[in-house]
Amino acid sequence: MHEIFSQLAGLLTHLGEKPILVIPLLGGEVRLDWMTILMSWIVMAILIVIALLLRRSLNRPVEEKPNRVQATLDALIDLLRSQLSSNFSSEELGKRMFPFVSTLFLYVLISNWIGIVPYLTSPTQDLNVTFGLALLVFFLSHWLAVRKKGIRRYLRGFAEPYAFMVPINLVGELAKPLSHAFRLFGNVLAGSILTTVVMAKIFPLAFPAGLNIIFGLFFGGIQGFVFAILAVAYINVAVES
Amino acid sequence: MLQEAESVASGISGADIVAAAKYIAAGICMGIGAIGSAIGEGIAAAHALDGMARQPEMQGALLRTMVLGQAITETTGIYSLLIAIVLLFVV
């Protein structure tokens, strides 16, 4: 019983004892988790290398017939556009936000999927990563809202519909990045805890592979999509309402 | 009988009771916490299916909205999962 808990504690990167990089900074210190940083750099490298490889075969005149890579990428972009950025209520905002939400989706998707490779962990299994992404969406949405509406109308938006609703509106706004981050983190963590428990104790041979398909690929894909579409919804609500 | 129970009880320290309480609390937290989100997600799926049966051409939009709503409903379940994890590994 105890060794299974120590294994699980090793999974909980931000809770358990893990190799941690300590950087002294301005009298204090910054603690960074090696594994999370390494894994997020691997995910970024995968995305960048695939993008560069695919771009090479697109470097050709427009008049020619589209080749296979171009047709595939067209379908992918069409899919992302129709599923994600078409949910913006204005066309112009959707066009501007399309690269951001697509990148967010692809990053979270690859982060979730990389956890099914043995000896690799998902970077989204660390609350710091998901919270960073959620805060990015949070600040971006409010910055865009201030730019679109002006600071006066933006601040007055908190007093809607009545002035005494200000604290409720503030709490509602601050709860958004929290739930946004915890949802992704909790789902990925629950999947890896379940897989670890089954692999360590119950049936180590083929059953965890099925669990990996369900939790890693299926829920990972759904959670990546949900994370991106919630980012779309939060930005849209902040800017358009 | 009473003496037996007392001799067993004397071997149990306070830390044991806390450990047992931790596991029980985590189990209760997860078990009860999952009820609400499970019912909510089921209701969302049922109504989305109703809509799809009535208007099959709306399937894409309904599926997207259903998944989004279910993900938001799931948040309470995820919160109880976090509480259970904190109870098991941190407290």
Helical fraction of chain B: over 70%
Mean pLDDT of chain A: 83
Strand residues, percent of chain A: under 5%
Provide mean pLDDT of chain B, rounded. Answer: 86
Question: How many structural domains of chain B?
Answer: 1
Secondary-structure content class of chain A: mainly alpha
Number of domains of chain A: 1
Globally, the shape of chain A reads globular
CA-atom Rg of chain A in angstroms: 21 Å
The DSSP helix count of chain B reads: 3
Seen as an oligomer or otherwise, the chain set is heterodimer
Tell me the CATH architecture of chain B.
Up-down Bundle
Share of helix among residues of chain A?
over 70%
Write a structural description.
The complex is a heterodimer of chains A (241) and B (91). Chain A has one domain (2-240). Helix content of chain A is 72%, strand content 5%. Chain A contains seven helices and two strands. In chain A, helix 2 packs across helix 4 (91-113), helix 4 packs antiparallel against helix 7 and helix 6 runs antiparallel to helix 7 (207-240). Chain A starts with a helix and ends with a helix. Mean pLDDT of chain A is 83; it is low at 13-17. By secondary structure, chain B is mainly alpha-helical. Chain B has a single domain (13-89), classed as F1FO ATP Synthase, CATH 1.20.20. Chain B is 89% helix and 0% strand. Chain B has helices spanning 2-10, 14-54, 59-89. Chain B is elongated. The model of chain B has no long low-confidence stretch (mean pLDDT 86).
